[in-house]
Request: fold
Amino acid sequence: MIQTTQIILETRGDCQIVDISSQVRRTVSQASITGDAIVVLFHVGSTGGLTTLEYEPGLVNHDIKAMFDNIAPADGSYEHEKTWDDDNGHAHCRASLLGPSLTIPVIKGQLALGTWQQIVLIDFDTRPRTRTIVCQILT
Reply:
């Protein structure tokens, strides 16, 4: 059986990291999962991505952004920007590296996350957005 819901978020862009762990836990709880299952998360859009990390101030407020700034700098030259006359070529490149989806096992009704592991959306765009994450629970 597959149960599908959506998580809707307002984001500000610029490599904002949003902890969505509680929303995913709530979705699993509301689905009344007591046994084993799989949660598949998919970010709808091409300038954000999903991953897990330790949601602590140094990593969230500096290290992740610094890493992506080194890999795909915001002030770099991007053909995407020339094609579409916009400013978010770096956001598309960063999102493609991170990826739009994440799969998390559910064991005995609980997300199989480590003690310091949170589920996050990273919004790489250059302006605020309404983000949609499709959440499917497979039992």
Observations:
- The radius of gyration is 16 Å.
- The chain has a mean pLDDT of 96.
- Residues 42 and 101 are 4 Å apart (CA to CA).
